[in-house]
Amino acid sequence: MSRIQFMVRFGYFGHFFHGLQPQKGLPTAGGTLQDWITECAGQAPKALCFSARTDKGVHALHNIGTFWFPNLEDIPGFLARLQQCPCNGLVNVEAIEVDPSVHARGSALGKHYRYVLNGPDAQTSWQIVPELNLTTMRLALDACLGTHDFKSFQGGGCSAGTTVKTLFHLGLTSNEQGIQIDIFGNAFLRKMIRNLVGVLVEIGTGLRKPGEMAEIIASKHRQAAGITAPACGLTLVSVELKNLGAFGT
């Protein structure tokens, strides 16, 4: 059977959807994308899957998916139609044809997430009332860098094969767009970033000391960590891909 493989890059506003993965009877980002691909191609995509699986309420600027068709007569027309996605919670939809060996889950080198506190839009940030001490929050970041067992930040229902992950970079900045926590890593556990941000906020409000971050990681126990930051503040910024040039940035 012939196989025409595509990689799609797309964004979405999490508050429109009940998560990413298609669910019967519920609007999801993945289900809405699947319906749009079907409308543009005149046939349903096969084996649609994604590089990053985001929970209900989490946003994305650029997530990545792959799918294929057994045949498609007008590939340029399909790709052009795909970019004209109506305003239904999806944004920045575009696709390219790729080799059949390319798979969304096997092509990711790393992911970049951003968590926003006190941003101008309450739908895309966590509004914190207590004043946050950014200096003490920054002191806790180094303990998270590198390769660690992040079991203390693992959310319920996580299906990851290992809780050991590598964080390449963490940054905390403050500007007119709010307090932004940028996290780059090779992979993440379910709710890992939101649980980590919860601890940072507790440090920023004085409920914890910066040195407790290392102790929490070393404990490898979820109860050692703190609150879970709400999903509304978290955005998947990008997925870094192997050998795909500008499309993977």
Molecular structure report:
By secondary structure, this protein is α+β, with helices and mostly antiparallel strands. It folds into two domains: 4-106, Alpha-Beta Plaits, CATH 3.30.70.580; 109-237, 2-Layer Sandwich (Alpha-Beta Plaits). 19% of the residues lie in helices and 31% in strands. It has five helices and nine strands. The chain has helices at 29-41, 75-82, 134-139, 192-204, 212-219; strands spanning 4-12, 46-50, 59-69, 90-98, 108-117, 146-149, 164-175, 178-185, 234-241. Strands 1, 2, 3, 4, 5, 6, 7, 8 and 9 form a nine-stranded mixed β-sheet that branches. Strand 2 and strand 3 form a beta hairpin. Helix 1 packs antiparallel against helix 2. The chain starts with a strand and ends in an 8-residue tail after the last strand. The mean pLDDT is 94.
Layout of secondary structure:
Layout: E1 4-12, H1 29-41, E2 46-50, E3 59-69, H2 75-82, E4 90-98, E5 108-117, H3 134-139, E6 146-149, E7 164-175, E8 178-185, H4 192-204, H5 212-219, E9 234-241
Helix pairs in contact: 1-2
